[in-house]
């Protein structure tokens, strides 16, 4: 089981008149990613730690083919409060109803960001954290045994991770956590992709500040917004038992599949199908 202490490391218009009118309209309007007349809700995809927005590529292609507006804003992975505040601000630029999807730590981000946002009609968790008030990602990850993130309960840093200190311009800094390249394939993909593909994903991963994983969550959006959950039965990072616990607590429409942690990478159809289930309920 992952030791709780391991994250305490500072955890064209055709005329000139028309063009001018168009510019004036754009200048006065709030930013928007699609029009409110879109026939389907906008799907907003939120990545977690040790991945990036590109991890949603297979899902995006399928959703767009079905006519869904889709966007995948980047997750800074600097801290839960900041990451969720950024996403909450971003959601205000999206017109019309939203289906908000989070994977891994991205689940924590959507849980906080969507609270009180009446545009968000459905939450979809993909092998994700769905914390309650005061809970953290590391606390939920250690609630049940089975994670491969560390095989040494006394290690100060999980054995599957590397700690990389960084310094900000003002002299302050923190610690970024990277997944080790030689353990990435097992931890996130459960051996589903070949070594070359896994190595590429490991090389392009986005690290997470260690503090983000221990930061407590605020009031959860899943208490007021309908949710869907993909339990990945072959998840080597978040124990499947933890996923079942979170899904049941949220009264989520739950699907279980023999998928790894990064199900959106290895099994985009399963992920897309669940998102579409949620989207079909939005009116």
TrEMBL record:
SUPFAM superfamilies: alpha/beta-Hydrolases
Keyword Signal on entry: yes
Gene Ontology MF, one: hydrolase activity
Limits of the AB hydrolase-1 domain: 43-271
Stored Gene3D superfamilies: alpha/beta hydrolase (3.40.50.1820)
Domain of life: Bacteria
UniProt keyword annotations, A-Z: Hydrolase, Signal
Signal peptide per UniProt: 1-29
Record InterPro entries: AB_hydrolase_1, AB_hydrolase_fold, Sec-Metab_Biosynth_Hydrolase
Keyword flag Lipid biosynthesis: no
Pfam families: Abhydrolase_6 (PF12697)
PANTHER family xref list: AB HYDROLASE-1 DOMAIN-CONTAINING PROTEIN-RELATED, ESTERASE_LIPASE_THIOESTERASE DOMAIN-CONTAINING PROTEIN
UniProt-recorded name of the protein: Alpha/beta fold hydrolase
Source organism per UniProt: Streptomyces polygonati
Lineage: Bacteria, Bacillati, Actinomycetota, Actinomycetes, Kitasatosporales
């Amino acid at each position: 089981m992952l030791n709780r202490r391991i994250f305490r490391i500072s955890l064209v218009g055709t005329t000139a008149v028309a063009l001018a009118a168009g510019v004036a309209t754009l200048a006065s309007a709030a930013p928007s990613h699609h029009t409110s007349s879109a026939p389907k809700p906008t799907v907003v995809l939120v990545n977690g730690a040790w991945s990036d927005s590109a991890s949603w590529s297979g899902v995006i292609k399928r959703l767009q083919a079905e006519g869904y507006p889709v966007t995948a804003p980047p997750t800074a992975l600097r801290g839960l409060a900041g990451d969720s505040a950024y996403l909450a601000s971003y959601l205000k630029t999206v017109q019309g109803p939203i289906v908000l999807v989070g994977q891994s730590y991205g689940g924590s981000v959507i849980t906080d960001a969507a609270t009180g946002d009446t545009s968000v009609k459905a939450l979809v968790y993909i092998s994700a954290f769905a914390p309650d008030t005061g809970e953290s990602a590391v606390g939920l990850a250690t609630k049940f045994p089975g994670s491969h993130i560390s095989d040494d309960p006394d290690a100060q840093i999980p054995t599957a991770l590397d700690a990389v200190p960084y310094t900000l311009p003002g002299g302050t800094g923190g610690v970024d956590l990277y997944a080790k390249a030689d353990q990435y394939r097992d931890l996130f993909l459960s051996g589903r992709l070949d070594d070359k593909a896994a190595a590429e994903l490991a090389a392009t991963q986005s690290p997470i500040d260690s503090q983000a994983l221990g930061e407590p969550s605020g009031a959860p959006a899943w208490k007021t917004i309908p949710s869907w959950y993909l339990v990945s039965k072959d998840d080597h990072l978040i124990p499947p038992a933890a996923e079942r616990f979170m899904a049941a607590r949220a009264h989520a429409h739950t699907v279980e599949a023999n998928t790894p942690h990064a199900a959106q990478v290895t099994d985009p159809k399963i992920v897309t199908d669940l998102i579409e289930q949620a989207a079909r309920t939005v009116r």
